[in-house]
Specification:
By secondary structure, the protein is mainly α. It contains five helices and no strands. α1 crosses α3. The protein starts with 8 loop residues before the first helix and ends in a 6-residue tail after the last helix.
Length: 88
């Protein structure tokens, strides 16, 4: 049997953010700010929904709170970590 490696959270996020914000995934780094990537508050909500779907988790987060507290791609990874998504 072939063991399936889970993609790194940053790789998954690159794909999700790029799709949502319609940008090139290669420009997305952990320290990229959502502002510089052109991610809107609505995009962020959609990205969080996508993360929930991708990992089968629920992140009970108020959209306004999310927008105030999540400023970088790393913040999204940290949020995921707090709900049990582990990076390497």
């Amino acid at each position: 049997s072939t063991e399936v490696m889970m993609a790194e959270p940053i790789e998954v996020l690159r794909k999700l953010i790029a799709k949502q914000a319609n940008i090139d995934p290669s420009i997305i780094e952990p320290d990229s700010t959502l502002d510089e990537l052109g991610v809107t508050s609505l995009d962020l909500v959609e990205i969080i929904f996508s993360v929930e779907d991708e990992y089968g988790i629920s992140i009970p987060l108020d959209a306004n709170e999310a927008w105030k507290t999540i400023k970088t791609v790393d913040d999204i990874i940290a949020l995921g970590d707090s709900y049990g998504i582990k990076g390497a």
